[in-house]
Amino acid sequence: MRVASDISPSTQLEQWISLGTTIVAPVTLIGAVLFYFGYVSSASEYAYFGVDVDTIGLSTQDYIMRSPQTLLVPLIVLTLAGAGFLTLNAAFRGRVAAAAAPAGDAQPSTNPAPHAEHIRRMVQRSRILGLALITAGVVLLFTFTYVRDWQFYGLVTPLLIALGAALIAYTSHLLDLLQRLRGQLPATAKGTGPLRTAHADNSVLARRTASILIYFVIAASIFWATATVAQWSGRGLAQYQAAHFNDLPSVTLDTRERLFLTEPGIGEAMLPPSAGQTFHYRYWGLRLLIEGQGRMFLVPDRWSASDSTLIVPLNDSVRVQFQFVDQQP
After folding, report:
1. Measured distance CA(46)–CA(151) in Å, rounded
2. Does the predicted model carry a pTM greater than 0.70?
């Protein structure tokens, strides 16, 4: 019978990781990610029109439905990068295995030792490059106060950290692979006594913990960079809408009281009095930006930096007409 004290630290770490992945359901995690990026994009989009997205009252499903357009470019880039990495990794591992092969397996006319040393030096230089990249990213991270107005700060900083951490993790793996293939690292620690076994277990636990932390840094940096892209995507959508207000529904608004709308392009007229008439003013030149929680968010027909967004409740205090599109069927 195996008691708890016989379980190695590395096995305990694997059990904790397995338990964590079981608790956090993948579907729930994906839904939360889609909601977050949909929210970030929408917040940036409607902030361009001076509207806090929380006042619109979009539902969780609305944010999730808005996220695919935001995540399209990051997903394509990550997919292409992953495919390229797998291809290069397969080719490079083949070269490493050939260079680190024992002398008896090599062809008589070739000497693998110089080639293996050349690969080792190249991997070590790549590791130094990774350290330089992650150092540059950390410097930018801690100098946020001075460089926060830089337009590309939110994209360059996480990419530097992610690329640096990825290079460090990959080159460390390649160096270990070279040592194992050359027989410089023992495969097991059997027969070396309990002290040596405990030391080996602690070493394995420390290495795996460091790897998990590096992967966490990479994932967090990619998440940060994707959130920045989501903000840019939302702002780009807003600017496109502002340049194409003709694509939005045209609204004619009748009100009981005068609204004093002075934005260029908005027309105002007083309705002729009649028996039972409750609406006295008519406004046109308005476009429906979005509707939420029984309210319409209207913008002028032509964009201007001095314009504002009008919030109109959908109740009996107003009368709304939506105009046909000026296009023959």
Report:
1. 19
2. yes
